[in-house]
Known about the structure:
By secondary structure, the chain is of the alpha+beta class. It contains one helix and six strands. The protein has one domain: Immunoglobulins (Immunoglobulin-like, Sandwich). The strands form two sheets. The chain has a four-stranded antiparallel β-sheet, with no helix packed on it. A two-stranded antiparallel ribbon has the order 1-4.
Amino acid sequence: MKQQTYIFILTLTAAVFLSQNAIAQSVSGTITSFASEAKLGYANVDLYKETELIASVLADKHGNFTVKLDTGAYRVEIVYAGYKMITQEIRV
């Protein structure tokens, strides 16, 4: 009985620990024009870790986006037709 209780507690502790570590961080934002502050819907947001493309998302029609990421440093590139590409370094 002791061994079964020990295994149950160990399994429960491992499950709680692993589920907390599995929760990803997220980055979200709204793409707007600097000049007019108009929301730029359907802008492309690319996230790189060093030179590797990690994620590429399309903002919604209101310019909102969300990306789940692991902890680390990333380079974000925002591309919208007719506008200059914006590059930003972020830490998650």
